[in-house]
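Students often ask why we bother encoding 3D structure as a string. The short answer is that it lets us treat folding as translation between two languages. Here is a chain of 165 residues written in the first language.
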Amino acid sequence: MTQTSENVTWLTQEAYDQLKAELEHLSGPARAEIVAKIEEARQEGDLKENAGYHAAREDQGKLELRIRQLTQLLQHAKVGEAPADNGVVAPGMVVTIAFDGDPDDTLTFLLGSREYVSSELETYSPQSPLGSGVNGKKIGEDASYELPNGKKASVKILDAKPHSG
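And here it is in the second language, the structure alphabet:
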């Protein structure tokens, strides 16, 4: 559960520990594995036409990018408490909304940083149009936000509960 504001990302202890464990795995065993794959592919000969070598180098680039992203995120992270269960939408909460007040047209999502990925929920950043529109609203209130095409959309907050991890 995270909230990003001006280069500071607020994380619950659980989210911090999860991201730190991912970084340790990528920096250690995963990095060693990719280096071994590159060396193995190098032994096969001509590098210009060696698809295994090029694929391993591409995987290495993706791995190093993720390591840099996690390192930067964790360097600027502040560990805090999960949001209060008070019916007010805040980062780290699972929010259910109804589009244009239609109870049959709903969406449930996690309001938080995309770095903390929930497998069962879509994640919207507090800085996204929808996220900034609902942030701070109470259950039962209406919220509006601007769509990419410039039109306004309105939603009703149906539920807001702290994410359980």
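Translate back mentally: The two ends are 8 Å apart (CA to CA). Keep this in mind for the problem set.
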